[in-house]
Write a structure and sequence with these properties.
This protein is about 75% helix and about 0% strand. It is mainly alpha-helical and about 400 residues long.
Length: about 400
């Protein structure tokens, strides 16, 4: 057991390091998550910090909490007037697009790893279901990473590209979670019924959407009628109800992440008292959660375990960036009216971030064979995506002529 004073010192140092990393990321024009992860890796058991952390269950718990609060804050800042013109395009990308990406990437991973007997997923490599699990884990994009780069680069995208990308990035995480959870359940139970899978997906989406809307309206009503003595208690009340939204929805068989995001969107587009205080609180809490989860995931990974999967992960990352993501975008936006260069840029804005790494803890905690190897591959793919796409988003937007002239 670590003495309390040492625990506080370590926590304080890591949080300050994360904040400094965020400032450095703004200066360098790179996604902050990359530096958060690197700080965690440096502080970990194989880094100079020597902090021993190898508990995927705790990491998943932290990740679930962090993702819940990040999605609620993201929904709270989503303006209906901005996303309404691109609603169906964004939702198509965040549902059908996620499914296409998962299918293509999963099939490619199965093809690539089917003959790799040293991949630690059984004597004959991986099955197609295990490949689909990897595809589902990697199927969603990261809004925070994308727009931190665009914001620090002072870019103003033409047309409705920015609200489309915001809507897709904010709403595609629940779909990736749904697919990952269902495939993990199939691998754990051996039940491969497609009908049961589809029923479960529709149930989780339907219940999640209904509870999310209902809880969003309920949060607005509670905030406006609670009449608390202190203004500072209102953000705490919204925090409590956001957590209740996730828990109650999950209890009734719905997807808690989808419900939390929808609740945030609903609340954010109604009038409620002390809105500036509440929004500021959740914005700060979202940053805290991002720092905490990235540091935690950085601590969880062992850099020495990344090297054996590096070559495979790079090939899969290249397929994801240059084939799976563009194919899904071009199919989903085939009749959208977007020009070729706009579709190319949307394809390039497929930056992966914290959610795939969080989802990669699911097969580990579920005891699936080779779960650790899947986690390491996912971690390496995320690093590759951040480095390749994160550093080139702004130049790509300028090169394609999609930046508003001053």
């Amino acid at each position: 057991m670590i003495p309390v004073e040492q625990l506080f010192i370590v926590a304080g140092v890591l949080l300050l390091a994360g904040i400094i990393a965020s400032k450095a990321a703004n200066k360098l024009g790179v996604p902050a998550l990359l530096l958060f992860l690197l700080v965690g890796m440096v502080a970990g058991s194989e880094g100079i910090g020597g902090i021993e952390f190898d508990n995927p269950m705790q990491a998943k718990l932290i990740g679930d909490l962090a993702l819940t609060l990040i999605l609620f804050a993201g929904g709270l800042d989503t303006k209906w007037t901005q996303i309404r013109p691109v609603l169906w395009k964004g939702l198509t990308l965040s549902t059908v697009g996620v499914g296409i990406t998962a299918l293509l990437l999963g099939s490619f991973a199965w093809f690539m790893l089917g003959s790799f007997t040293n991949f630690n997923i059984g004597p004959k490599g991986i099955t197609w279901s295990e490949g689909l699990l990897l595809g589902a884990i990697m199927s969603s994009t990261d809004a925070a990473a994308v727009f931190s780069v665009l914001k620090t680069s002072n870019l103003g995208l033409k047309g409705d590209l920015q609200p489309l990308l915001e809507l897709e990035s904010g709403s595609n995480d629940p779909m990736a979670v749904l697919l990952t959870v269902q495939i993990v359940e199939i691998l754990s139970t051996g039940d491969t019924s497609i009908i049961k899978l589809l029923i479960s997906l529709f149930l989780q989406i339907g219940v999640g959407g209904a509870f999310g809307y209902g809880m969003g309206r309920a949060i607005v009503w509670v905030v406006n009628h609670l009449r608390l003595n202190s203004q500072g208690l209102y953000p705490v009340a919204t925090l409590a109800m956001a957590m209740l939204t996730y828990g109650i929805t999950d209890l009734f068989g719905g997807n808690g992440f989808l419900a939390v995001y929808i609740a945030g969107v609903v609340m954010g587009n109604f009038r409620f008292i002390y809105s500036e205080t509440i929004r500021s609180f959740h914005d700060g809490l979202s940053w805290l959660m991002q720092i905490v989860i990235f540091l935690t995931l950085g601590l969880l990974v062992f850099p020495s375990r990344l090297l054996p999967v590096a070559s495979v992960a790079i090939v899969i990352a290249i397929f994801l960036i240059f084939i799976a993501r563009p194919v899904s975008v071009f199919i989903c936006l085939a009749f959208s009216g977007y020009r070729l260069r706009e579709k190319l840029f949307i394809s390039w804005v497929g930056l992966r971030g914290s959610v795939p790494i969080i989802l990669a803890t699911f097969p580990v905690t579920s005891g699936i064979s080779g779960g650790r190897s899947i986690f390491n591959v996912v971690f390496f793919i995320v690093l590759t995506s951040v480095l390749v796409q994160g550093l080139t988003l702004a130049p790509a937007a300028r090169w394609l002529g999609l930046v508003e002239s001053n």
